[in-house]
Write a structure and sequence with these properties.
Helices cover 17% and strands 43% of the residues. The chain has three domains: 2-8 and 254-366, no CATH class; 37-173, no CATH class; 180-247, Alpha-Beta Plaits, CATH 3.30.70. The protein has 367 residues and is α+β, with helices and mostly antiparallel strands. It has helices spanning 59-71, 196-210, 227-230, 235-242, 330-339, 344-356, and strands at residues 2-5, 8-13, 23-24, 29-31, 37-46, 86-95, 104-111, 122-129, 135-142, 144-151, 156-173, 186-191, 215-219, 222-226, 246-247, 254-258, 263-266, 271-272, 275-288, 291-293, 304-306, 309-324, 328-329, 360-361, 363-366. It starts with a strand and ends with a strand. InterPro entries: Flag_FlgI.
Length: 367
């Protein structure tokens, strides 16, 4: 149910099923060694329509532009140029696992100077480095900006973020990550949400699929797979069979509250012990209305300001003393409070108090 009170809204999502249903192992774990690598580079965008960096405010733009021109055989030593159609940018990308030389990846381009927009710009050939300092890809292409801006002498308008954009397939892989995946004899599966019950179910499901003990739970977040015990030709064949095995995950009882938007999200397993709740709002309002007092015409005296203060205490109706029986689900409590017309902000305060009293049996996360 969604209640909108001004700009505050609350969304209550409660699961009606006891379990989420079987989920593929590939959606629950990360396989050891199967990971991407972050890349970053520093480059130059050209072709902007007067929306580039101001050279005086971003001297590094002039430096990189001079370096590029020197590499192209153009001598600009001692020359002063103040173009407005170039911008210095950071280029970021992720090198997917098992990327081969010649494959293409997407990149993100972000201005680092005072450029107003990258719309219509072209990124000049930019090498992308990994954490080891080696160049793994080279980026170049036309930027698709994420917004638009326009301005005149007296006003300007900006929609979206025109100082950042993307280039689909804008980088070409030049170096491969050295990783001999085929030689692995054991692979660890790391659970995205560590849980002993889920890890045990993954172990049981994998062993049942192969008909022999090939998986072993190491801890709440790790299950180890013995490649040799699977009797398959390689680790790739083993993971291709393991990742599609269905497992029913176990989830912790959680309540997530976003105070900025008034959003409350909870799980079906959240329970509340027997507790009594009473809630009300007290508002203190003080208003100053000074009065100017002047003497009568032709009378002696001077004009003075007399302060006048109005103080008012208002107690808004809330919920009276209510008792919640033990074992009640949080969804039932929320439904009851919602039926009484309790505002989302007040509902969040009530949940905080119930948690502080030790009656809310769930992990309470406030953002």
């Amino acid at each position: 149910m969604i209640r909108i009170l001004g700009v505050i809204f609350a969304v209550f999502i409660c699961t009606n099923m006891a379990f989420a249903g079987p989920i593929r192992i590939k959606d629950l774990v990360e396989f050891d060694g199967v990971r991407g690598n972050d890349l970053v580079g520093y480059g130059l965008v050209v072709g902007l329509n007067g929306t580039g960096d101001g050279i005086r405010n971003a001297p590094f733009t002039e430096e990189i532009m001079a370096n590029i021109l020197e590499r192209l055989g153009v001598n600009v030593t001692g020359e002063q140029f103040r173009p407005k159609n170039v911008a210095a940018v950071f280029v970021t990308a992720e090198l997917p696992p098992f990327s081969r030389a010649g494959s293409q990846i997407d990149i993100t381009v972000s201005a680092i100077g005072d450029a107003k927009s990258l719309l219509g710009g072209t990124l000049i050939m930019t090498p992308l480095n990994a954490a080891d300092g080696q160049i793994y890809a080279v980026a170049q292409g036309t930027i698709i900006a994420g917004g638009v801006s326009a301005e005149g002498d007296g006003a300007s308008v900006v929609q979206g973020v025109p100082t950042a954009g993307v280039i689909p397939s804008g980088a070409r892989v030049e170096r491969e990550v050295d990783f001999d995946f085929a030689s692995l004899t054991e692979i660890r599966m790391a659970l995205r949400t560590p849980d002993f019950t889920t890890a045990g179910r993954i172990e049981q499901a994998v062993n049942a699929a192969f008909g022999r003990p090939v998986a072993r739970m190491l801890d709440a977040g790790t299950v180890q797979l013995d490649i040799n015990a699977t009797r398959l030709p390689s680790a790739a064949h083993a993971l291709g069979q393991v990742e599609n095995i269905l497992v029913e995950p176990e989830r912790k009882a959680k309540v997530v509250v976003d105070q900025r938007s008034g959003t409350i999200v909870m799980g079906e397993d959240v329970r509340i012990s027997r507790v009594a709740v009473s809630q009300g709002n007290l508002t203190l309002r003080i208003q100053e209305e000074p009065i100017v007092v002047q003497p009568n015409p032709f009378a002696e005296g001077q004009t003075v300001v007399v302060p006048r203060t109005t103080a008012e205490i208002e107690e808004e109706p809330g919920i009276g003393l209510a008792e919640i029986s033990g074992g009640t689900s949080l969804s039932e409590v929320i439904a009851g409070l919602n039926a009484l017309g309790v505002a989302p902000r007040d509902m969040i305060d009530i949940l905080k108090s119930i948690k502080a009293a030790g009656a809310l049996h769930a992990e309470f996360i406030v953002r």
